[in-house]
Each structure stands twice: as structure tokens, then as C-alpha cells.
Design brief:
By secondary structure, this protein is α/β, with parallel strands linked by helices. The protein contains 21 helices and 20 strands. Helix content is about 25%, strand content about 15%. β19, α20 and β20 form a beta-alpha-beta unit. GO terms for molecular function: catalase activity.
Amino acid sequence: MVTRKKTGSSEDGAGSVLSTVSGPSNAQPPTSLGSSDPIAEQLLVKTVAGQQLAAAMPFNPNKPAEYGDASRTPPAGATAEPSTALATGSTPTETIASDKLGSGVAPVGVNPTVGPLDRVRVDGGGQRLTTNQGVPIADNQHSLKIGLRGPTAMEDFILREKITHFDHERIPERVVHARGSAAHGYFEAYQDMSAVTRASLFAQPGKRTPVFTRFSTVAGERGSSDTVRDVRGFAVKFYTDEGNWDLVGNNMPVFFIQDAMKFPDLVHSVKPEPHHAMPQASSAHDTFWDFVSLMPESTHMLLWQMSDRAIPRSYRTMQGFGVHTFRLINAAGESVFCKFHWTPLQGTHSLVWDEAAKLVGADPDYHRRDLWEAIDSGNFPEWELALQIFTEEQAESFAFDVLDPTKIVPEELVPLTPVGKMVLNRNPDNFFAETEQVAFCTAHIVPGIDFSNDPLLQGRIHSYLDTQISRLGGANFHEIPVNAPIAPVHNNQRDGMHRQAIHRGRVNYEPNSLAGGCPFQAGMKNGFTSFPQTISEDKVRGNPELFADHYSQARLFFNSQSPVEQAHIAAAFRFELTRVQTPAVRERVLATLANVNPVLAGSIAAGLGMDVPAPLPLATDRPMHEYEPSPALSLLSRPGETGIRTRKVALLVANGVDGAMVRAIYSSLLEDGAVPRVVGSQLGKVKTSEGGTLDVEITLEAGPSVLYDAVVVPDGDAVTVLGRDAHALDFVREQYRHCKPILVVGAGAGLLKKAGVPPALPDGSADPALIGTEGGALAPALTAFKTALAGHRSFARETDPPKV
């Protein structure tokens, strides 16, 4: 039963504390956020203390001393004492402790970087030789070769790190993944995985490993927007006790190309065109589509890119994938293949295109803000890590090549094995020092994990390291605090720009006797060793024959989507190709898609005013493999487990609103973890129908519809006032058009009627996400509203073009 409060509430304005933009014009802060979560309580303490600290200095008393003769003797700066260290901190999550973050006690008034140099003095006595990521080195005498007399392998990350550091010992924005957001947290293992890997983070149930995770868009520059159609980076740095492991993946399990040789071409094509530097953060232009239409192996990835996966609702509601096939190696030296999957417990949810495009203007920081607000309020995002584990013998029986990064291993073929979960529980203190300077590299692996011969992965092993040397000013980027491992680092690398460690002694080589042979190589048992894969092949440039199947898995993906998701894919292709100016490029893309699905190609062609051309010739005579649809590939199969937590709900108000009802709904939403906001035409107070007042937290202008997951239109005479405000009418229209839940109580239904929102679905059936009720039956209606809010959108409303 929902109770309705007749007077002011201790929770009034809680939604504004849980948000990072706007708030009541002049009101007492809340005394509760509707939650007993300790991080949420600290957020409230931090907010209130910060407001009090700012209010303690109503003006600058030293300003008169800056002019005339008084300026000759400047006074000490004016200060105010905070009531708590939280008031001046970056985030209430600074109390979270881990082996990487430290004790969780804020260092108030302290700069440890200028303390005694003992903090950076390093001595390798009695220590194993390691890489700069803290990975113990088994063999420091030999490079990794293809056979004892064969060529040196490009994947020898130990050799490359050692030589590259030496090359740069004498002393810019990322090219891709420039725009990103990140957070600290931990990975907790579910079980002992020692049967398949000696990686220490999987050694025992309950073992926690600190992590730093960065999400990003690929194509845009740092100043671009969060919600553009793009691949999203999903990179996790595990600070293991045997060195750093970087799982550098994306929110899609495949990629556009099969070989690293083509990566510069791909990125050049998708970046702004070089003659006029447009468009920014978009693939909807000629050069990208010209390139991919001549690279049919891109077809599978294009289907993912044109799907809703490319416009995630938030970083917290998107999957992550390692993309490539990797190896797992156990203590006995036995190897299996593996693919990595991250699944968000919040569910996998996306935006709709019209919403995503409008968010670019309404809040270009939408994803960054969402991640920060969720963590600061104690609603820590969680993902489950699962592995697809299979043997080389199994891989040889598949209809595709597991070394081809344009292919997935369907879950029906190799089920997922959950092995642990990641929790992000602390925001960074400083964006530049942590999020911007963090350096992920596919070459950073630990004992128990190894590479496969995936030709795209093999090139990434070099590319990331080389880029970081340029971007972060030299070969010592591993000493930047966010990049430093928690495992001890001892090696003979010296000098270079920005060196932090001060090494004792005269020895910087191995073997040596002057330092007692230290640091010494760890040996086979304790150090990193590569899997001794037997290879007897000619040197050659080319691809295996199975790489030539460009369309069967693209068909699998499309056939596995729900009808509404298929319609979104067709609409995305139509939009992108409409922006293309060169007819031959459009025709080539359609000819590519004709090999995937004739209905898809026909729908896109009709939208472009074109005929469907003949399919592109295939690159192989082998028949296409026919896959059964895979439900796991549809977003609608992944609603999540966390209910309405962190979902943002607008409560539209104006003079005459039922204030007790607003407070009752607001409180009930808070209790279940949602973030309600009181939204009105302007900041200030509105008069309620019972003679009280409500504080508007954010305006329709500053907080448009696309920023919210749902809307409530309460009872009262406010509907008359709101009905005269075009912003309010647009607000409910867009909530309907974007298929979001709507709760209207009593007279509130009049606003929907005036906005032209139909009471039923286009087919005449009831809309389960459009809930109407009278005030006396609020409790069951609110329950139904929360159910709709926790699930996927009411896509049955959609029409193309939209009717509302």
C-alpha cells in the first residue's frame, strides 16, 4: 500500500542529490535518500557538507585588498573549514579500499608525491625478474621463436617490451577510443579454475582482484558525444598478484577486419574525411561505406553496428567481449581455447535512434554522467564474466575458423561457463590522472593466459604498446600510478622520460654477479611461459580458406533478432546510406546485404528509392553454413536482474498538482532504487492542490524527455497549466514515441490526450507500459508501472515513420 504524505518530506529533493545536474532553487537538502546504503548516505553527507562549506564563504573578503596601496601587502587567502573530509573529496566512494586503491582513508592536506624518496626507491635483491606489468619472466635468455631455428614470433611481448623500452630510454589524444569513462572496482572469482588455467585471479572461490575499467566510443574525438552510433570499448585492467592483465575488448564480439594489416585503413575510412574533417563520430559517410563495401568480411560486424548494440542505453547495460580467441594454460602446461564474455546484471538495454540523436544535444555526457551517478549513489554496476572453453580438436570441427575475428562461437555450440563477477565501486579522483592516462594493452597477460594466432590479435599486441609510448611521453608509462601493478616490479630497464623509480646499486643487466645475480629469472615453474605450439609451415601472406565465408554468421545474427530489432537494423542502414553521396557505394552495400537476407536488402533499397542489385560474388565455392537462430544474440533475451535501480523517472508538476501523491510516488520509487526528479516549467516552488508547495528540481528545458526512462503525470489541476506548455506536450510525446513507461493518474490523462498520445497500441490492443488510474487505486498502478520500468521498452508502439 502506498502512503500519501500531506506535508513536506525528508526525501524531498533526493533525486537531485542522486543526479549531477540541476536542483531546487532554494530548499533545505533532504535528510534521506530513501536508502540505507552506506555509500548513498555518504553521498548525502558529502552533498550537504559541500553546500555548507560553500555557504560559509558568501563573498570574497580579500577582494578590496587587491587594489591600490592595499595590494602591496597581500593578505592570506580566506578559508573555511569543512565539517568532514567528504566535503572536499572527488567522490563518496573514496572510502572504498583495495590493494590497488589503498586504505580508503582520504589523505587530507597531504601530497605524498613530494615525500621522502624512500617511497620510490627500488631494490631487486632476492626478487624474481618481471616485466613492467609485474609478470614473472621464466626465460630472460631467448626470444620466442617458431622452432629452435625458426623466425622470432611477433607475439613475444617480453622481448618487445624490453627492446622497445631500450629504444626509448633516451629521452597526445588516443587515435581511437579517445572519449571514455572509467571506474575502479574488483573482480571476485566464483570457483577454482586451476583445471584449465594457472592464472592466479581464478585460483580460488571468493578471491578478489582489483580492477580499473574504461568504457569508450571508438571513432569520435574527446569532445564528441556519448550516444553516437559506434562500437564501444570495454577494457578491464586486472591488478593480479602475478602482474597486470588487460582484457581489452568491445561491446560487440566480432570486428570489421580479419588481419591487423587493414586496421589503419579501417580507422582512416571511419574517421572524419581528411579534406574537410567531417563528420565527427559517425560512420554515416562515403569513405567508411566505400571501404567496407569492398571488404565483404565486414558484413557480420556491419549487422552488429547497425543494430541497437551500437547505441547502448548506458555503459552499465551493455555486454563486453574479448573478441578474439585466447588460450588458457594450466600448471601442467595443457592448453584450451577460450573466449571472454561480460554480461551486465542490469540487463542489456539500448536507446532508440531518435532518442540517441537527441541526447547528443540534450546531454553529450549522458553515458559518463550515468556511470558516475550510479557509483556515487552506491548502485554499483556489476557484470558476470563467463568463458567459452573448447579444445583445439573441437575448434577443428567447427564450420568456421576460431582465429577469424569476424566470427563468433555460438553459445548453443559452446555454452558459457560463469567464472566470476566484476563490481565497479569507486569513481576516480581525477579524470586526467586516471581515466585519461590509463594504458591498456593486449600484450599485458599473466601466467595461465596466452595468445592465439588470430592475425588481428597478433597486430594489436604491438600496436597498443607502441601507441602508449607516443601518447604518454615515453617508455615509462607503466609507472603512472593507475598503470602500475600491485605485483612487485624488478628488472634492468632504466632511464627514459618521466622515470619514477630510483634504483640502488650499479647493476642494470642480467646475468650479473655484482648484485648476487638479482633480479633473477623465475624459471619455467614460476614465470610466464608461452604455450609450445607446434608449427611446421611456410612463411606466407594470406588467410585460411574458412576465413572466406563472409555471410553465414551475418545471416545468423540477423535471423536471431526479434522483428523490431530487424526493423531497427534496416532503418539504421537506410539512414547511413541516405547520407552517402556516391551511388556506386550504396549499390555495393546493397549487393553485399543481398547475400545476407533478401527482405533486409529489399527494405533498405525501398527506403533509398533503389532496386536491389545482384548479390556480390562470393569469395569461396564452399556452401554457406546454415545456423539455427541463437536467442542469446537478441537484446530482448537479456532483461537483467536489478529491477528499477538507477532508472530515472520524471514527475511532471505545475501549480495545482496533487502534492501528496507526488511525494508518495517519489518516495516509493526511491525505496526501490530509482532516481525520481520533480520536473516543471521553471525552478522554484509550485502550489499543490492541498495548499502546500513542491520544489521543482529541474526544468523541462534543462531536463528534456530523452534524459528519463519513464514519466509520471500526477493528478490535479496542473494538467491545465502543463497543457499550455509545448515543452510538456513534447515531453510526453517523446516518452511515448521512445516506447517508455508512462503513468498517468486521474486528470493527468488529459495531458496525454492533448499531446495526441493514443490510449492503445497501433493494433488496438492495450499498451502494457501506458498505465492509467484514479488516485484511489494508486498502489496497483504503481506496481504495474515499476514492472514496465524494469523491463525492455514497449516496442509494440513503434511505427515507421512515427505517428506521434
